[in-house]
Amino acid sequence: MKQVLVIAYGNPLRSDDGIAWQAAEALRRKLCNQVRVTCVHQLTPELAEDVALADMVIFLDASSNAEPGRVACRAIFASPGESDFSHHFAPAETLDLCRRLYFAEPRAFLVSISGKSFRHGQELSPAVLHAVPEVVAQVSKLIEHLRRESRTPYHPRLAPGATSVL
Amino acid sequence: MAEPRTVVIDPVTRIEGHAKITLHLDEQGRVDDARFHVTQFRGFEKFCEGRPFAEMPSLMARICGICPVSHLIASAKACDALLAVKIPPTADKLRRIFGMAQVVQSHALSLFHLSSPDLLLGMDTDPAKSNLFGVLERDPQLARDGIALRKFGQQIIERLGGKRIHPAWVVPGGVSDPLSQPDRDAILNSIPDALAIAVRSLRWLKNRMEHFREEIACFGNFPSLFMGTVKDDGGLTFYDGALRLVDASGRIVANGLDPRRYLEFLGEKVEPWSYLKSAYYKPKGFPEGIYRVGPLARLNVSDRCGTPRADQELAEFHELQRSAVLSSFHYHQARLIEILYCIERLDELLHDPEILSKQVRAWARPNALEGVGAAEAPRGTLFHHYKVDEQGLVRWCNLIIATGQNNLAMNRSVLQVAQHYVRGEKLTAGMLNRVEAVIRAYDPCLSCSTHALGQMALNIQLLGPDGVLLDEIAR
């Protein structure tokens, strides 16, 4: 059976930056047998080993560059990044470390939920909170897509820079 | 003859937290004095006043993102004293497991992520390559081992405490939940691989020592006291015991000291040029009472580890010098020996028939107005001291952090390295990296914020007395 890893990252004490953790809890409840979910404050080198064991990895994160509550999903690929500075490890760099250390390149996606407030606090903005069901729906579609791929002949990988697979 | 000058290294890289180093040069261009400045202000001792003491473990865990478990444990022990309870035996064992898992992951971070670039690639390597990715290119297995070992410790913390950073599982009176059998079995299954990594990492490190003879001779290689917690039989421990101090010859200076009475024998001095206080051993006065804590100190004060492989390594470690092992370069090897000990001891504790017991917490109302908790954090002895009122609200809090107890030694070490390597009007990256590297050997934890591996912006200037730029290195 295909292994799916969901990595939710962000700070739950900085308001909407914690939306990924909230979405991760919803995924655990809805898809408990289908995915492995892990919540972290930031991406670190230790995650590369977990990523290597997965067939698909889905990163969940908050963003700040769109209307609050908007959910965006895009394919991502291993890339070394512009600097060797682990304090700001990005999903692409995690994949790159995974490829260089463990010779693995799972399918990978970044699902971003646009936030409104990133101040100190644990409350999520209503618009952001209401986006959780859509996150669950999109992750479910990605998993279903993966399952269909495993039952059918080979499909080419998504082209780099593809903004959505849905 | 030239005028006196100052070299400033800001920030110090590949450490946990923020700091800078100033080197004062005399007229001949030789290093006359050196200072290690901690540039962060935290304020925990003040802003927790007025909080219910039961909140303290969770509050104090926020001091650090690398070693929150140590603060949880020391704080909970102080709260146990306020409750005047003896925690259940299973809770005692579970706290020990928790603490040792953290020692493993914290030591692994220090060695593999922060210091291994120097140890593998050399002190004069291009700073842009002196990071985890540089290690990965030269020795991918070493990089994998570091990641695996850190993950081993973090996963134990996550299984027990629910999350890797700031878990709230250690509470006044014990722990909040028992250990489940699936979690126990999963941890046991991961031990053989972790043990193999620890053994081969020690072999690798010992083989690297011959490349650093000059550094070993001047990296904090001076007489000082060493302090650590030991068991009744003089064995290494991280959770509970009495304090022992030895001098540079290895002679026991003080033994059986009750950590709860730390104020009787430990003092703290505030210096105007740093937010980090300097601790000292009171009977010797300041600054003669300089002492070191952490892995090097613990192995100097301990007669044994108590587990087979770690005891073999400790015996070999004690042979490094006829006296106590003085060079702070050997903190690295001491860290790996402690990792080895912790993994062996975790195996023993997890096979204990009581480890799955549901009796993990003692309940009581406050029964005392003052409590002290002490534990061995990865970096050294940690003290939490609280005074509360009749309602259980904190009225006074004093923390002695491990790194503060190494402050005098770190300053002296920086001076020693700088005097050996820094010359005249020409600065090289290798000179300054060695000054930083001696700080890394102590693995200071200055805050939870930063663990940069490599390319932080760094600018080093050598200025004349009139502000004229004489030399500059920037990256």
Q: How does this model look, in words?
A:
The complex is a heterodimer of chains A (166) and B (475). In chain A, helix 1 packs across helix 5. With 166 residues, chain A is α/β, with parallel strands linked by helices. Chain A has five helices and five strands. Chain A has helices spanning 19-31, 47-52, 91-102, 126-129, 132-151; strands at 4-9, 36-40, 56-63, 71-75, 107-114. Chain A is globular and about 40 Å long. Chain A has one domain: Rossmann fold (3-Layer(aba) Sandwich), CATH 3.40.50.1450. The two termini of chain A are 22 Å apart. The model of chain A is unreliable at 153-166 (pLDDT under 50). The relative contact order of chain A is 0.24. Chain B is an alpha+beta fold and 475 residues long. Helix content of chain B is 41%, strand content 18%. Chain B has helices spanning 44-47, 56-61, 68-83, 89-121, 132-138, 140-161, 181-208, 213-218, 262-265, 295-301, 308-318, 331-350, 402-405, 407-421, 429-442; strands at 5-10, 19-25, 31-38, 170-171, 174-175, 225-230, 242-246, 252-257, 266-269, 278-281, 291-292, 370-377, 380-388, 394-400, 459-463, 469-474. In chain B, strand 13 and strand 14 form a beta hairpin. In chain B, helix 4 crosses helix 5 (132-138) and helix 4 packs antiparallel against helix 12 (331-350). At the A-B interface, helix 3 of A face helix 5 and helix 6 of B.
